[in-house]
Amino acid sequence: MEPEPLAKFHTQVYRNGRIIIPKNERDYFGIDQHDIVELIIRKIENGKIVGRGWFIAQLTVRGVLTIPLGLRKELDISDGDFVEVLLLGFIRIEDVIGTEGLKIMKALKANEYRIIGEDDEKRLLSLLARGAYNILFIRQ
């Protein structure tokens, strides 16, 4: 008996190669934005598989991810096409980098910044001088 993927579904390719993992699949497995998925994508024409590729991607909001441009070109996948997707596995990013790491990642993606006062500057420089600085400022 051949091994089965975690899930198999069909989806439309949106602008710039974006596809969506259906909400019911994400809910069932507990997959959320920022998590990393491993996929096989199949291009199907007239009911036959005419090409396939493997890739990993990070989910954004509402289960959106992007098929790599090179893979889209090699399989001749265009916006508006439908593809078959096999979900092979996933990694919950928080399990790998922890809660603090996830906060840092979200801050980076959001281009987070703060206007600081003199006291904040002194505190940050003090942490640096003690060798204790590890992006603690985002915890406030």
UniProtKB/TrEMBL annotation:
InterPro entries: SpoVT-AbrB_dom (IPR007159), SpoVT-AbrB_sf (IPR037914), UCP019240_SpoVT/AbrB-related (IPR016752). Gene3D superfamilies: 2.10.260.10. SUPFAM superfamilies: AbrB/MazE/MraZ-like. It comes from the Archaea. Residues 11-55, 57-101 form the SpoVT-AbrB domain. GO terms for molecular function: DNA binding. Keywords: DNA-binding. This is AbrB/MazE/SpoVT family DNA-binding domain-containing protein. It comes from Pyrococcus kukulkanii. The lineage of its organism: Archaea, Methanobacteriati, Methanobacteriota, Thermococci, Thermococcales.
